[in-house]
Fold each of these.
Amino acid sequence: NAGVTQTPKFRILKIGQSMTLQCTQDMNHNYMYWYRQDPGMGLKLIYYSVGAGITDKGEVPNGYNVSRSTTEDFPLRLELAAPSQTSVYFCASTNPYGGGGELFFGEGSRLTVL
Amino acid sequence: KNEVEQSPQNLTAQEGEFITINCSYSVGISALHWLQQHPGGGIVSLFMLSSGKKKHGRLIATINIQEKHSSLHITASHPRDSAVYICAVAPVGGAQKLVFGQGTRLTINP
């Protein structure tokens, strides 16, 4: 059981470039999240989704976009990368109503914007 | 004031000691999570609580819904328990949008 898989694990971007962080889960979870964690800081919610076709903004959505075309996949798109987006990004999923509510996290994607 | 407050922020102890990390929150919740993050590593879910007490091995988590307080205990602590422990709450009606504490950095010395 793979759980939550994030790619890439590391990436260096130049200012103004764009990229997509991929997140896939194989647990049939409805709820998926993207968080960022800046050095020494707590997790901040970027976007979340409660099911395929439904997405909503979290605390820090500016500069990011998401889509949820399938239950399994929840990619995070960075447009026009800025140094302020240098962070570690975590994808997570859960099924609060049928799966016990336990949270599963991906291993993280470390992004540096230079 | 943050909605989720953890104490202490940093904790250093000797191997074998009994460890307690506290979490207080100010909102009504449907669940509380305890998470573990090793340095430079990923995040692992330790417990999800909505009432009472849970135990996994040397780890025990308790929650008092009336007092809006939870504790994470580690018995017979070991250097491999060194990590950041994060409390997160799911506010009622919040689509499981967790509110995170700042974390407690635990260091267990041999």
Amino acid sequence: DGGITQSPKYLFRKEGQNVTLSCEQNLNHDAMYWYRQDPGQGLRLIYYSQIVNDFQKGDIAEGYSVSREKKESFPLTVTSAQKNPTAFYLCASSTSETALNTEAFFGQGTRLTVV
Amino acid sequence: AQSVTQLDSHVSVSEGTPVLLRCNYSSSYSPSLFWYVQHPNKGLQLLLKYTSAATLVKGINGFEAEFKKSETSFHLTKPSAHMSDAAEYFCGGSQGNLIFGKGTKLSVKP
């Protein structure tokens, strides 16, 4: 079935560690996104990518890094510079970041907890 | 700049009564607008989307939304709430980038 797969579902990080969240899609979508979700704050955009080997910072990119080496994959690394990484992370994709009338398809999310 | 505002952070209704979740948008141009639903610890599922073909949009699970340009609104409604509708709902917009409101948590009382 076509869709977006995020892994792992739950992730625990020690202080000072980098961790990488996986996001894979087989929808042949050009655009991919990472959002962070905290209670009462909705979805905040971390990074987005319109095409392979290109990506842009969103509203809260500090302490995060991404890569887009393949169309299907858009991994997110939470670095030790991110001071408050405990949150629910959602990956999404769409046919085109700039096209109108295009909705996003979401993965099931990864819950990251600092221990 | 484009923005989406959900006017209520929490809405509580009784089962069988109507649901109204409010969303306003701010955009210089005609946007694409969406409503998503999120159940706990899950991703977002598309309920419906406005694509300028019709101002009244019907979605899944009996939900619908009406685009009102004069009021810059895209409110989500359902005639009769069901217990399974309890979830968080997000209004979103697309005009070169996908942005979302802060969400409205819907509680349904028996």
